[in-house]
TrEMBL record:
Keyword ATP-binding: yes
Name of the protein: Dephospho-CoA kinase
Organism: Fictibacillus barbaricus
EC code(s) of this entry: 2.7.1.24
Keyword Transmembrane helix appears in the UniProt entry: no
Record's function text: Catalyzes the phosphorylation of the 3'-hydroxyl group of dephosphocoenzyme A to form coenzyme A.
GO molecular-function term, one example from the UniProt record: dephospho-CoA kinase activity
One Pfam family of this chain: CoaE
Top-rank EC class of the record's enzyme: transferase
Chief localization: cytoplasm
Binding site for ATP: 10-15
SUPFAM superfamilies, A to Z: P-loop containing nucleoside triphosphate hydrolases
PANTHER family, alphabetized: BIFUNCTIONAL COENZYME A SYNTHASE-RELATED, DEPHOSPHO-COA KINASE-RELATED
Reactions catalysed according to its record: 3'-dephospho-CoA + ATP = ADP + CoA + H(+)
Length: 194
């Protein structure tokens, strides 16, 4: 069974994935794969440099993620272009990893996909879980975790489907407005249900 774990930026997907991983469940992390497929030498890397220019590179030729983020979280057209470059490679690697886990005895696999609904990837999973935090808590956690100003945080939040809209699309809504312990209890209950 493949579960699609999603949420909004900073609502707690990684925290939830970490808890589930401690329960022995394999996690396939789209953010992590999205970092790997843009390493120098990869096809997506070449396409990004060709489109955005060398100004988005650091001295060691790896991507300057802060710079690229400032561009794409403030420009929907450029964000779509980056998504078109990066997402196909991410999807392929996610599928490969899921196949590997299911072929080697795992009964449940979690795919942590921030843009599960935006990118219409629900066909890749059998059930969708939304890690939900209220817009106020989401903004506060994002500003604290990344040291962003309110403006920087909101530009990222507004690059995604509003978290309250995702609620209507998810099979299971797991509220993460409380403590991490409470989140852990809810996740363990979901695992027991399966
Ligand atoms: C723009 C980039 C370089 C900024 O890197 P940075 O290290 O600052 O952020 P990181 O990758 O850790 O992402 C943090 C969060 O931002 C959100 N986010 C990332 N990319 C996008 C996007 N294209 N649209 C909306 N939200 C996004 C997600 O919630 C993600 O969890 C990077 O996010 C990126 O390459 N994005 C495009 C690939 C992508 O869509 N990744 C997300 C899932 S595959
Ligand atoms: N229940 C909680 N109580 C307090 N802080 C929390 C809770 N859950 C998560 N956090 C904190 O909120 C921040 C965002 O959580 P996390 O990194 O798990 O979000 P995410 O959804 O994976 O974000 P991204 O979309 O950027 O990958 C982190 O600093 C995390 O420690």
């Amino acid at each position: 069974m493949i579960i699609g774990l999603t949420g909004g930026i900073a609502t707690g997907k990684s925290t939830a994935s970490h808890i589930l991983s401690e329960q022995g469940i394999p996690i396939i992390d789209a953010d992590l794969i999205a970092r790997e497929v843009v390493m120098p030498g990869k096809e997506a890397y070449q396409k990004i440099v060709a489109f955005f220019g060398e100004k988005i590179l650091q001295e060691d030729n790896t991507l300057n993620r802060t710079k690229l983020g400032e561009i794409i979280f403030n420009n929907a057209e450029k964000r779509l272009r980056l998504n078109e470059i990066v997402h196909p490679a991410v999807r392929e690697e996610m599928k490969n990893q899921a196949e590997h886990h299911l072929n080697t005895g795992s009964k449940i696999v979690i795919m942590d996909i921030p843009l599960l609904f935006e990118s219409k990837l629900t066909h890749m999973v059998e059930e969708t879980w939304l890690i939900y935090a209220s817009p106020e808590i989401q903004l506060k956690r994002l500003m604290e975790r990344n040291g962003y100003t309110e403006e920087q945080a909101l530009s990222r939040i507004h690059s995604q489907m509003p978290i309250d809209d995702k609620k209507a699309l998810a099979d299971v809504v797991i509220s993460n407005n409380g403590t991490k312990i409470e989140l852990e209890e809810k996740l363990i209950n979901q695992i027991k249900r399966l």
